[in-house]
Hints:
single chain, Alkaline Phosphatase, subunit A, 18 strands, 12 helices, alpha/beta, disordered C terminus
Amino acid sequence: MSHSFFRFVAWGCALIGSGTFNTAGAREPDPPNIVVIMADDIGIECLGCYSSEVYETPHLDALAAGGMRFEYAHAQPICTPSRVQIMTGKYNNRNYIRFGLLDPEAVTFAHLLREAGYRTCVAGKWQLEGGFDGPAHFGFDRYALWQLTRIRRNIPSRYPNPGLEIDGRERNFKDGQYGPDLVTDYICDFMEANREGPFLVYYPMILPHWPFEATPDHPDWDPTRWRDATREPRGHRGPKYWDALVRYTDKMTGKVVAKLDELGIRENTLVIWTSDNGTDRAITSPFRGRDFRGGKGTTKDSGTHVGFIANWPGTIPAGVVSKSLVDLTDVLPTLTDVAGVDVPADLHVDGVSLAPLFHGKTREKDHIYCWYHRNGVREKASQHVRTARYKLYDDGRFFDTHADPEEQTDLAAGAIPETLKPVYEHLHDALQRHLAITRSADEVQEAKRKRYERHWKGFPQEEAN
């Protein structure tokens, strides 16, 4: 889809800006600012607002208490599939190429909002290639990113003394700076400079992904650590500093929200917080009566069940716990919905807007679908559909994820209980629809995977925008 088309959409959408009036002569509300925060590798068992037994997350708890917390939200099992899904609003069967890459032809929520007059910013972890021009090509005006131009074996530190890419320059910080602080401060500065709005901030957090290192708030913090490293060392993998990383994840979230309060724009800002997948498998935590091992990289609930919070004072009621099914495809249509931006029909977005729930209405989403293979190999992909409780895989396995979170007992191995036949048949029909879409996309997506099988060096300069 051409960028000239988006400029046409922007012209039509410009009337939603500040100071417009409806046909009755009443002033339309200004489009809200939007902040989307996606943490890196943290499941619900680590969040106080989801009844964590050991971790303290006061800022996230306050965000949930003041807004809407979704009990049944799911991401993809690892980072790149989730990053592709959240930015495009599509399931991976139609647009995933391989690990570490966003399809150069993809249309993102940043495209749609920027063309409607939003100033756009992305800061944090990129890991989607594209070079210095990549963020602009995908709709972002400003950026401060880790793993944009320096990828794979050349990746610098993300934590102490980090290497970042900021607005077209590689920057190495060697005076004891901490990567999460730098990108969070960048976001706060961007919001201050654009306080008149509307703005979009997308914050794919660096935290709390491995390597598990002491934070500046931990007694073991060493401001000289990795100062001389030419690329990111492997670091710790065990639980020693996990609690500290969880606390800092919460702290950085609180810092962004506090800046909105300071600027006096909190009530005109929608904040969404979620995660890209479950916790690293090196971490086991007591949770809801059992030892809960992180399931990152697996399609079990421990790998996909993530926190999801929406907070918008004065618009979203406080203290609501929603049992509506949510996945990351729902973010794009939610953002465009609250911004008053139409999504072109030919994008064929899979997500369903959450905005009706913000106003006490209902939305129709009766299942979640997952297509997953880390490296995009079509014939090896795992596919399943699910409700909040039941999950059906494309190989026929059928599980009760509440009673059997480890997926040990296949309910379809024998005769399916009569009480479960309606939900099984519903999921079976939904899965067949998704499988048909997958088959129709296989040839195109496999061709793209082969084309971009190796490192993609970025856009020609004239393609950046």
